[in-house]
Amino acid sequence: MTYSYNRLWKLLIDKRMTKTAMCKAAGISTNILAKMGKDEPVAIESLAKICIALGCTLDDIVEIKTK
């Protein structure tokens, strides 16, 4: 199973928001951002914080692919 956060990166571009600003708004650490940059899994609590900060759903920010 692989994870892709490309939807999140596109959403940030559409909202003209930097990754750093998103981290501050969501209250997540840069370590979580680094994991997402490598398409690694992160805790659902962190994803929920991002969704709340951006006013979106999980489907808007992450895609789970099965091989």
Could you please say which CATH topology applies here?
434 Repressor (Amino-terminal Domain)
Mean pLDDT: 95
> What's the domain count?
1
Return the CATH architecture. Orthogonal Bundle
Count of helix runs? 5
Q: In angstroms, what is the radius of gyration?
A: 11 Å
**Taking strands numbered 1, 2, ... along the chain, how are they ordered across the largest sheet?**
1-2
User: Termini distance?
Assistant: 6 Å
Given as residue ranges, the uncertain stretches (5+ residues, pLDDT < 50) are none
Major β-sheet profile: 2 strands, antiparallel
Q: What percentage of residues falls in helices of 4 or more residues?
A: 55-70%
Tally of extended strands? 2
Molecular structure report:
With 67 residues, the chain is mostly helical. It has one domain: lambda repressor-like DNA-binding domains (434 Repressor (Amino-terminal Domain), Orthogonal Bundle), CATH 1.10.260.40. Helices cover 60% and strands 9% of the residues. The protein is built from 5 helices and 2 strands. A two-stranded antiparallel sheet has the order 1-2. α2 packs across α4. The longest helix has 11 residues.
Summary keywords:
5 helices; mainly alpha; 434 Repressor (Amino-terminal Domain); two-stranded antiparallel sheet; 67 residues; globular
